[in-house]
Sequence to fold (1038 residues):
Amino acid sequence: MTTATPAEPAATAVPGAYATLTRATFLASVRDRTTVFFTFAFPLVFLVVFGLLFRGQKVDGGLPYINYVAPGVLSWGVGNAALFGPAFALMHWRRDDILRLIWRTPTPLPTVLGSRFVVAVGVGLSQAVLFTAVALLPFFGLHLDGSWPLALPLLVFGVAAFLSTGLVVGSLADTPEAVAAIANCVMVPMAFLSGAFYPADLLPGWIRTASWVLPLRYLDDGLTDVLAGRASFGSLALDCGGLAAFTVVFGLIAARIFRWSNRT
Amino acid sequence: MTAGGLLDLRPALRPGILVGPALTRGPAVVHLLKDPVTGVRMEVGAKEHFIITRLDGSRSLAEIGTEYAGHFGARLGDAQWQQMLRLLSTRQLLDGGRPVAVPPPEAAPRKAASGLLSGSTRMVADAPALMDRLHRATAFARRPAVLVPLLVLAAAVPVAVALRLGDLTDQTRRLSHQPVTLAAAGCVLWVSLGLHELAHGLVARAYGLRVGEIGLRRVWGVMTYLYCEVEDVQFLDRRGRQVAVAVAGAVANLLFLLPCWPVWALLPDSAQALPFLGGLLLLGTAMALLNLVPLPPLDGYKILGYALGTLRLATESRTFLTVAAAALRPARAGAPDARARLRRYPGRLRLVHGAFALCCAALALAVLAGAGLLCRAVLPESWEAWTFYLPLAVIAAAAALQLLGLRFAARRAAGTAPPAPAAAEPQPTQTTPPVRQSGTSPQQREKGDMKPQPRPAGTAIVLDGVSKRYGEVHALDNVSLTVGQGEFFGVLGPNGAGKTTLVEIVEGMRRADSGTVSVFGLSPWPRNTALLRRIGVQTQTSAFFTRLTAWEHLETVAALQGADRAAARHALDLVGLGGKERSRVDDLSGGQRQRLALATALVHQPDLIFLDEPTAALDPEARRSLWTVLRDLRGEGRTIVYTTHYLDEAEALCDRVAIVAAGRVVALDSPGALIRSMAAPARLLVPAGRITVEQARAVEGAERVLLEGGEVVIETRHPNKVLIDLAALVDIDAIQTRTATLEDAYLRLTATPPPAAADPADTAAPAVGTERSR
Fold:
């Protein structure tokens, strides 16, 4: 009798679903050549532009300029990719009824999100590796401190925070244009106010204080400290904690406004 | 056709066909031919050219044959004439008074796919018109008094640059340390390249040629350049003009630099702009001159080809080299043959091809040496021992990679030969794919042999008094129905009748406002995963994971459903998409998408299957083969709920049909019973010539008699009786009987359509093929 067949493999279903979904998400991301190009090329373009503009200058904080620009642009690039990708995907999945398809399967939504998270972390780490490799060239002159592995947890927490922001954006927007508009409205001011494009130490005092309400500030701050070798576990934990808090807040908002279908 | 008749023909070439001057391709003399209407270009040999140019409608083939014999010393036989004429007529070159068939765009060589990073964008909507305007605007320059000084000045630029090479090189080196200024110089040179293309177009236009397209071409996102397509340069009658078109670009580049020269020469040594201008002059001149290097695809190669009157010089030189090499090898078996081939090259052509090959080799060596020197200059000192060989190593690595890639591609192509189950099936084509071959043909499996299948006891779906409203709209209004397990249940209704809502309530996506819903004895609301596992839904919008292939999509869905890959494979083969598994879902045709959506619904082998117009985008053949799949599914004991607009489909497939209108079930029964309950009259059709309307009216049992499109139509509820009476009046084979169809019932039940269709008896032959004649 056919009724019995689907029940049996269900016990082993979830890990399989997880791996396959991760693979599918990965393939879909990699095959979007345009996005891949901009994901990796944009931060590099900014690095080149700022590198050319401010080569050799020093900032009050005592570090060479590149030590501010590189972590800033990197955190902006990672945050951007982690926000835009899931936001677009969520909007498309809802619009194309893929969410309904998932709804009908026994696979729980956290599995779907988990696979998305793994891919986003992968993208963020590859961005970081490529970007750092370029910044290390003699032309830019970044020096990597031995404590760089501390950047890994920061990146993971950062990706999580921006992914949950992306889920909010993807739940709000119903068209690609709306996703781009909302996400840009979020990211561009944040990049300037958090010191991603120029040293936070140069910002007016009140903006510097106010910028701690932005997730990018925590990522930027943490990465700057790690790359300069002045990170302590305390400050790092503070940055990671800030990012985790943003993840929770935006995750809750996303869960609240999540829709399975545009028609419901 | 007799031989005499053939030679008396006086065919003429279609007016407007372009015939080019004599060219050589390898050892052969060829002429280019172009049909301006179809845009087709072809090459013909000297003999064909001799004949074609004499086909003017006034000369007979016999006369041409005599001239031909006088010229080539050989007569043409009938068979050769016939072959020649057939060739000309299939190429549509003869003036036959028939309209010329232009090949559809698909048949034309397809352009490379245009994406964001690579491809081309048309910039000018009407390039010929733009060139006409430019042609008029530049009329003043088309005089020797202007052209000669301009050409002299253009020639003077490289000379002047050569004289001051030291200064310029120095300034260019300084420029290379100012990235922003260097980028600005690059932008200026880019504009100069655009003018280069326009110059080609302008000169071509001046000689009466057509400019096809002006646009931007992108290569891998790193290079973007303007292009200007000039057609038919080789049809110009003088080689000098052909060369002029090709050389115009480089001249434009040099003229563009002209204003920079005096500024550069007058500026004091300390001027900041000096490196910019100096670099511009040097790089611009180098760009113009490099373009004249005779290597494909540069202008220099074209100039050489036009000047020598050769086609595909590079390829032919390679051929010549292989032939020459084979001929020189003494002990080889093929040598005499090769020597014969070599002798076919006249002395001049041997020189041309040999010299070109030598020239290419020299250039390649020069480039390699230059690259080596550049590497040594740029790379760190410590690598000195290596640098000179770096370009060689890079080329070797690239060649190895290409080889690997080719082998991989070949292996992949071999691997694509479909796996075992798919191999047995005919490869589905793009348009009319057979979904599945089964022992019996769809025709045999028509309604007639729909035997009652062994049906499992019990019910699949029970709806009792279900209502659902959105605001003021009653999507469902007190709906009660029962679907038995293993039943093929049709849901018919106009758009917006509530079909979708009905399905969504049954699968538990929406909650009914009132009433009870039970599926396999369980309540679907709230989301019941145990139940969802037994339900498969085909969506109307064909929801697929973007940028995945059909197989990857199905594999993912299978994993989501907790099924294994074998299940995905089974579903793919079931719908006959095995041959398309490597296609991206975005590239599938409408019918293929429908079938992938079906496979998506079936992948976890559900017991209850909701299909929403699965045959909507299919052609009739694919539709029929899908029916076979559906009947097999039903044969396996699965319950199918089927919404469709095709009434013939519902009639052929469904055990029972619910007709839904305005949120209510207005009828629910087997298709046959529905038709009978309508008591719609049957229609007997007799050709109007055989019987008059009066005669027909006199037949007992005839309820209405109409004259429709050359046929007398008799409507009756007692067709057998009327048929017997009619047989006395006309030949019984001339009478057609049309019984009522589900469409009649459907139209009568669903609301009040336009008055003409309100009474099914009044509808003319139904648009959908629902008639059954006997």
Q: What stands out?
A: The longest helix of chain B spans residues 347-378. The two ends of chain B are 48 Å apart (CA to CA).
